[in-house]
Amino acid sequence: MRRRQYRWVLAVGLALGALLVGLLFPPSADQAGVPGGWPEPLVQSRLHWVRVLDSKHFYTGYSEWRGAPLWVIYRSGYIDNPAGPPRPDRFVRDWRVFHQPGPRALTGSGYGRGHLAPNYAISRLYGRKAQLATFRMTNVVAQRSTMNRGVWQRIEELETDAWARQAEQFWVVTGPVFDENREWVGAGVEVPDALFRVLLARTADGAWHALSFIVPQTAAARADLRDYVTTVDDVESRIGFDLFPQLDPALEVKLEAAMPSAYWRLSTVATRPGRYTD
How far apart are the first and last CA of the chain? Predict the structure, then answer.
């Protein structure tokens, strides 16, 4: 009995210590090589306060107030061999935060556990340990299955199979879109109205190209991806964050207002079916 109590006290102590270290010494965007730095809130509200969690190969702006990630950033890349470690069979709590949904919080709610840093890309690019980190609940939002396994999966697949192929650097910033009408399902999980995804590709000539999506939860699996294309400026206005605050100002203005360039070949790939929509 005493041994169990000792282990429990030790676990709590370690978690509190790690939490304190994370608060006092947050990870550096410069060290992570993230272009533009961490997203910065445009709205002064507790609902936009985040703590940056370093999972080595992806970074999370996590909201204790919402009990959800507000953004995730990771460096993606071209994957020519789809073989990789098997998919884990369970989600787990993240010891670095206090307020988070439990792994079974969405059971029976009509929503599933939607990854932000994706299992497929992270596991193939960075290995098993990084893959397991994507199954922490701090990387999860409530997501409709049709949207998750349809439009959302198709975008994730194009990132690694097509769009990153010609890029020297390929970055993804993604997260939920909440409106003022807050809604919960399951065991107190807040539901986003949509998800956003901003892709940033740097080619060999030094040019940067941006592609942005806002995908509603109601998106049909076979929808044309162009129906959900928007600008970085529009994404930022919807989520209340400046996504690339440290970019050169002239480049930031140009990228964030621009619609997709020919680099993305949307006319060719926007209706391509995905692995789960054939």
Answer: 55
135: closest CA among 148, 120, 146?
120
* Nearest in space to 31 (alpha carbons), one of 66, 56, 62, 64: 56
- Return the H-helix or E-strand segment holding 119: helix 119-126
Stretch (H or E) spanning 214: strand 208-216
How does 130-146 read in b/e, with b if 16+ C-beta sit within 10 Å? bbbbbbbbbbbbbbbeb
Mean pLDDT, residues 22-45: 82
pLDDT of 202 strictly over 80: yes
pLDDT beyond 50 at 276: yes
Domains and CATH numbers, the chain: 28-269 (3.40.570.10)
pTM, full prediction: 0.90
